[in-house]
Amino acid sequence: MTTQIPSLDDPRVLVQTPxxxxxxxxxxxxxxxxxxxxxxxxxxxxxxxxxxQHPSTHGVLRLVLKIEGxxxxxxxxxLGYLHxxxxxxxxxxxxxxxxCYTDPLEYISSLFNELAPVMAFEQLxxxxxxxxxxxxxxxxxxxxxIASHALFMGWMALDLGGLTPILYGFIxxxxxxxxxxxxxxxxxxxxxxxxxxxxxDLNHEFLSRLGDWMSRALREIEANTTLLNExxxxxxxxxxxxxxxxxxxxxxxxxxxxxxxxxxxxxxxRAHPYGVYPELEFDIPxxxxxxxxxxxxxxxxxxxxxxxxxxxxxxxxxxxPVMAKVxxxxxxxxxxxxxxxxxxxxxxxxxxxxxxxxxxxxxxxHDPSFVNLQAVVPLMPGNLLADTMAVMASLxxxxxxxxx
Amino acid sequence: MSFVPGLGIVKGxxxxxxxxxxxxxTVQYPEQVAPIPPRHRGRLQLLxxxxxxxxxxxxxxxxxxxxxxxxxxxGTDTKxxxxxxxxxxxxxxxxxxELALRRSGRPVPDxxxxxxxxxxTSDLDRLLEAEEYDPARxxxxxxQTQALYGYIPxxxxxxxxxxxxxxxxxxxxxxxxxxxxxLEPPTRHTIGICRCPACSLFGGGAIRTALEQALxxxxxxxxxxxxxxxxPDDCHGENGGAPWVTLDGARQPGITAxxxxxxARSLAGPAPAGRA
Amino acid sequence: xxxxxxxSGRLSPTGRVMVPALGVLVLLVVVLLAGIGTGIIxxxxxxxxxxxxxxxxxxxFVVAATAVLLFTIPTAFVIIFMELKVIAFMNLRxxxxxxxxxxxxxxVVHGLKVLSKEDFTPxxxxxxxxxxxxxxxxxxxxxxxxxxxxxxxLFGADLNxxxxxxxxxxxxxxxxxxxxxxxxxxxxxLLGGLRSAAQMVSYEIxxxxxxxGVIMLAGTMSLNGIVQAQSGxxxxxxxxxxxxxxxxxxxxxxxxxxxxxxxLTEADSEIVxxxxxxxxxxxxxxxxxAEYVNVFLLSGLAVVLFFGGWTAxxxxxxxxxxxxxxxxxxxxxLAIVILAPLVGSTLLALPLWMLRSSWPFWRAWIxxxxxxxxxxxxxxxxxxxxxLDALLGIVWFFAKSYVFVFTxxxxxxxxxxxxxxxxxxxxxxxxxxxxxxxxxxxALAILVVHP
Lengths: 404, 276, 451
Prior knowledge:
The complex is a heterotrimer of chains A (about 400), B (about 280) and C (about 450). Chain B has about 280 residues and is α+β, with helices and mostly antiparallel strands.
């Protein structure tokens, strides 16, 4: 298409609201070839909006589905409903401020959002973090990984119509979040990681809650999984659904549980070790099937590995300070740094450039959900409407991280 | 999936039935309050030192550090000590009344906290451009603003803060620090009264009481509508056998308490709405 | 300011209701007295009574229909409350506990809320169909109630084609859902309506076929007759002889009532609320009334067909016959009615009074009266249960039905939703052959046992 398409901001462009539900959306002229193809309806097809306000989209993702009867023939994900410009905000704040902006990115697992920028800034500063701080970071992050995966199990069931697992997931998450609140002060946006360490040392309330929970965590989680793991309806609906094979997973650049469910044991904690992970023993669970069920089961396995890591961390926790000596006003030498960590959703990276002032010149977050969400487009066509949600849920995207 | 079809479903149903009889985890909020962890940072709190005095020095550093400008400070000078209040407006002694007035639709006495009236900022913009939007030249900017409007309205402070990039708290702090800058509009009339023993002997006290009653403000205050202010004045020993009362600097000879009250009432503006 | 006349706006909320009510009451009393005094009202009453007696069949039908219609309201409320509370308990929550004791009035408040909401019709909707749809659904489920026997002799109508009528009228509900889905002018509603049509039509077949075995065993299609054919102990219930039919029936009934795991028509995670997406206010309320009434209806039908309806699982081995007929006591009854409370309360009060020396006697006596009343209610209840089969039948029927209702709710709390193609596959590939096999085996058994 070579015709010049006027901008929507141009007042001469008349934006009409659709007169009937059968009219094509959006009402403006198509801007790309893909859009022209997608919004042209053949006989028997219709467009259905899933989101941004829909009971089961994760956050405010909008999926425009082209359906023939119940079968999805094409789809168009529309992003940006939760864009807050956090990267730009971070570039206009000094290094300490920038960290607290990153908290609400992936709001399910906030500690990871802080850890990556903190590690990048530490690289810029050539800081050595005290070992106790490193261990505390691992401990709190693995706890939050369990919370995130527990919640995922509930969401997955909720999107398939099960009412109860989400609440069991929330009970587990609440226990963890409460103990992290004892450690960090807050329940959701922890703001705990600091450049050069962590905000505070372990305290008695945190440790007693943790001990309490550790004694029954595995048992509780395994009991909760019996609701779904062997449930015939759940297995029938997820097994063989949305299969991502190894080629496709690598081609799309998926990370995290989604790529491990396709049989590729890529985990940043082992592939590019950071912190004290090289000293800890844990397995990278993988599954070969690559379907929704494998992605679900993989997260259950990861919970068990995380509990194993926490057990080791508690036994090896060294003594010492939790903060390195860091000046209030940080002016790193000009340079660039990249730090990647393994968040519950995959490789979470932060790229920072310093120009020698007290504010980062460039502050870029690489979010795994954004990459993983791309798999929706090749996976969905040919499935039924109900499977849209099963596939979406198994990829576990969080819109806060995708839209930044 | 198990070999027996339906076994997985039965297992799940057993679990939910077992949960049916287990103790519940709900926290009944208004009756039970979940404990707030000691490291909770969600509450603004002023600290007291070991002598029981507030540690806060109103340096506005916290207000400047707050990324969303949620911290603001108001203060009243009580007994030589700058006493700082914090928290929502309901908790400020001097703001509580203002809030109640605003809710009841009455005029708010302190214009600094009144809802912003629309401000013609074209002159202010010209002024700011002449000063190159430089926050370092805040004092000249504020002085010229006062020359423009007669005082420094809150809307102007907001506008200056936006234009220069300085924090609102900084601009406010500068404006409230210097004596020659006023955050309130100038009054139309000033009634001065001398408090020296000689004037008091000749009936100055009665006049003062009458004026205070008529205006409804103590000495040194301004009426609610901002029309009249009652200021202390000095006769420098030249009262000539009568209390020294001035209106806008002009001596009012031979005034009595009743006359002073009548004078005050005649100066006051129309009664505010809602007042009987 | 002196207040001479108190305007109604200054009355308390109770006063605002009571003052006009008092006026109306006074007016009514005056009219009644005048009517009786002049002999107009007795004449009208006698005339109406005569007309009613002359058309006793119509009166019976109208009364039954009204009773059934009124009965659906508390039923729906109870089931909604059960759903709220049971699912909450299974989720380790407490559930409703603010309105009424243990939150029992929560569903009533839900009903009031639904009543007070805006009745909204979307632009572009087919207004007449849109308005009619909830009524059709609701009326269909209420009409199906008419043939359900609650106890011996307690039913709206004992049709000899009761079962046929039940399925025919019950199947009408899908028309309402389809109408709602079509007329709402919404894609989600359309999908929901079409899903419900496909689902209901598919599941009608195994549902009806699974019941044929029962009809063959009972030899009648009257629901009353089917219950009577199962009288005896629980070994005589048809679930023992027709377990496969019961399984098929239960699964098909779950789908028929749109319950999880077959609640595709209102799958909230897929098509928002399905056919009900555009409905609000009482129209939405009608759909949900119909849904919960349907749940009770199908539970009741399962009980009637497979679990012996109102019959007790084990007949009481020691039959009690209370030979005292209250009518035969004559004046003695009057004496008992007057004296028994006095004597009983005093007798119950004496030990209380003696134990609690700080109490005055009247206080102990009031407590004694309360105790006596409770005892008397219990005794009368037991007397009625033993002497009135209908009451015992109702108790058994409701107990069994609510076990099924609980099961439906329990399933909703546990199971995820099935997919539409799996739903259809289950109906046509598994349930239909299973019910046909069951039908064949039943026929064979009947031929072998009773040639």
